[in-house]
Amino acid sequence: MALDPETLEHLLDTVRRFVRERLVPMEHKIAEDDEIPSTLLDEMRALGLFGLSIPEEYGGLGLAMAEEVRVAFELGQTSPAFRSMLGTNNGIGSQGIVLDGREEQKRAYLPRLASGEIIGSFALTEPDSGSDAAALKTTAIRDGDHYVVNGTKRFITNAPEAGLFTLMARTDPEEKGARGISAFLVEAGASGLRIGPVDRKMGQRGAHTADVIFEDCRVPASALLGDREGQGFKTAMKVLDRGRLHIAAVCVGVAERLIRDSLAYAMERKQFGRPIADFQLIQAMLADSRAEAYAGRAMVLDAATRRDAGETVATEAASAKLFCSEMVGRVADRAVQIHGGAGYIADYGVERFYRDVRLFRIYEGTSQIQQLVIARNMIRDAAS
Ligand code: COS
């Protein structure tokens, strides 16, 4: 449901203030401790930030995509680790249920995801199956009124915190491709489910990933997402279409934050007797970043508005993810350059963003996968 403009502005203003007053001052500490304090999580819960995209009837804010991306522009203005904690409940950790779940599954899990009582996680990637998601090997074999799950999922965001996994597993081992895959809702604590050690990453400290290991893990047959087997790959693709737009919006937010910081630094820092912002070579970097962030913002809003109007936006979502994740990489690189030596020193935080944004070009589909999705859709549309 779309909010009235005044309520939306109020929400955006609240998020903006929360980000600037509560999250930005904590960025350094979260990176140092690799942990988001529980008090901050409680504040996020109280603001409804875990349920932005979950329909109102299940306890969320029920934002339209064009509204959600505007919130994501704001959430992007701080360390991506904060957004990551909220991101799975709003995106890949809940949307499988929203899009394809049975009514009782929606009632059982969506209110708890919307309130932030539980964290949702999306278990698709495996040691031997990343970009080639349809090649996944984890199996879920029907045994009476249960499925028995075996396999390992890798780099799973929020796995250590998760209360619920949307798991993609092969229910038909004879069918090697996408059609043999089904999705399941598996609760943390299920016997035979184990979380590996937290991965050590290049950036985004405070956001955790880990392996999720299934060893003869028995899940009830009712854990199958939806009402028939073989639909799991399509569910995953639909979830990713939506997630890619959200990530693109976060990239725009981070870029805008870095541009603001770079401009402030350039106007204050003096060399050759003048603020470095007076120099045209610095101006060129600021201008390129500003123009590219604007292009990214416009793409995201256009794609989100089209999606809300019922259009299929797989191509637009992939285009936005491709452009915005690459764009924020360039913006972060220029931010380091504008800050000079300070850009390389941890105290200023710019180098942390430089490392943090590298992930955007990889997860929820690498840039190369976005290119492939865009081109395949172009060829398919032209041939039809
Ligand atoms: N929405 C709905 N259905 C979709 C879809 C989408 N966006 N994309 C594909 N499908 C359907 C296809 O229509 C096809 O259905 P049919 O068998 O009924 O024709 C089925 O899914 C298989 O599609 P396809 O043949 O295109 O699958 P491929 O194995 O060739 O893989 C890519 C397609 C590479 C695009 C896919 O594997 C992918 O997105 N990989 C990246 C995964 C990823 O993002 N991982 C990140 C980690 S998760 S955070």
TrEMBL record:
Sequence ranges assigned to domain Acyl-CoA oxidase/dehydrogenase middle in this UniProt record: 121-217
One GO biological process this protein is involved in is: branched-chain amino acid catabolic process
List the InterPro entries hit by this protein, alphabetically: Acyl-CoA_DH_CS, Acyl-CoA_Oxase/DH_mid-dom, Acyl-CoA_Oxase/DH_mid-dom_sf, AcylCo_DH-like_C, AcylCo_DH/oxidase_C, AcylCoA_DH/ox_N, AcylCoA_DH/ox_N_sf, AcylCoA_DH/oxidase_NM_dom_sf
Its annotated pathway reads: Amino-acid degradation; L-valine degradation
Please give the Pfam families that the UniProt record associates with this protein: Acyl-CoA_dh_1 (PF00441), Acyl-CoA_dh_M (PF02770), Acyl-CoA_dh_N (PF02771)
Which intervals hold domain Acyl-CoA dehydrogenase/oxidase N-terminal? Answer: 6-117
Which terms are listed as keywords in the entry? Branched-chain amino acid catabolism, FAD, Flavoprotein, Oxidoreductase
What protein does this entry describe?
A: Acyl-CoA dehydrogenase family protein
Q: Which family does it belong to?
A: Belongs to the acyl-CoA dehydrogenase family.
Is-annotated flag, keyword Plastid?
Answer: no
Q: Does the keyword Oxidoreductase apply?
A: yes
Cofactor requirement: FAD
Lineage at the top is: Bacteria, Pseudomonadati, Pseudomonadota, Alphaproteobacteria, Hyphomicrobiales
GO MF term list: acyl-CoA dehydrogenase activity; flavin adenine dinucleotide binding
Record's Gene3D superfamilies? Acyl-CoA dehydrogenase/oxidase, N-terminal domain, Butyryl-CoA Dehydrogenase, subunit A, domain 2, Butyryl-CoA Dehydrogenase, subunit A, domain 3
